[in-house]
Amino acid sequence: MPNNAAAQLTPGKWAGLEAVSDDRRVFAALALDQRGILKNAIAREKGVAEVPDSAVVEFKELVTAALTKHASAILLDPEYGLPAARRRNRKGLFVAYEKSCYGAPLPRMPELYDTWSVRRLKNEVGADCIKVLLHYTPFEDPQINEKKKLWVQRVGNECRANDIPFAMEILTYSEAGADEKGLWYAQRKPQVVALSVEEFSRPEYAVDMLKIEVPIEMKFVPGTSMFSGEQAYSRAAAQQNFRSIDSATSKPYVFLSAGVTNQQFVETLEFAVESGSRFNGVLCGRATWQDGICIFAQRGAKALEEWLYTYGVQNIRRVNQALESAQPWIEKLIQPTYAPDLT
Fold this sequence. Notes:
Layout (H helix, E strand, L loop, with lengths): L10 H10 L6 E5 L4 H11 L6 H15 L5 E4 L5 H4 L6 E5 L21 H8 L3 E8 L5 H20 L4 E7 L10 H18 L8 E4 L22 H14 L4 E3 L6 H14 L5 E4 L1 H4 L2 H8 L1 H22 L21
Parallel strand pairs: 1-2, 1-8, 2-3, 3-4, 4-5, 5-6, 6-7
Helix pairs in contact: 2-11, 3-12, 7-8, 8-9, 9-12, 11-12
């Protein structure tokens, strides 16, 4: 069992988690906080060097309006996502607080927006939950990791001072620069993910929920539709790696889709359920809407809307169906003495 038993939540944090989860208290949330990656993808599909910011804003508005009808919440960014936040069908709102650093060289040191604070995101944007992303591996230079840990502590303290839930996304990487989709890293990944989860579940970070990668690479698991022919783990070992996350944390946690297809992500969630994982939902983005990028870029907004209300809705419904066996987060957290009645 994890050695970091959850503390009793404050009323504000409890209310925030209620706002971003469904009636079962499972997180069935849509992620749409991509910034440079999304802008570049639209430009690539359009066959141009660059598209205006307004294209990214419009894409987010259309996706939000269509798909939040079937989600418990949406994750947006303050850079391109604020107009979309007004079209979220009264669903919960996660807001990203960190600047995107996907294109930065390792070790990808984190940075916050200098024109926003937790207080502003809560009071002016209406955030129910604050999210930051950290690129992390426990095997990085200790001085670098110490700076990253202090950064997380500062965000946690700011969320605690404003009584709003703190969701932390962890993306692991190879400090040696190895191929993170290759066999060597696949064999190491379960340990990297579990140790990272264990670290940021400690009380000094004040994290309330974790958004994490699945702890294995499914293409190295025999018997899955994604199996590449190379084996990193047996099926039983892969399932044990899912259960190891529950041994590393008592915090609620959700899985991210990491850019895989909808079919692959649903199969991964089904594998997690079969493994006995006690995950609490998803914050899933590209596995739901990424196929709409090409349609938007080449055929425009109306064609994207048509795609969203057919194939996009089918995608999110398949994910939601896979979440029927996810665990309610209430089983991991202690209700405050006074919690607002949201019914």
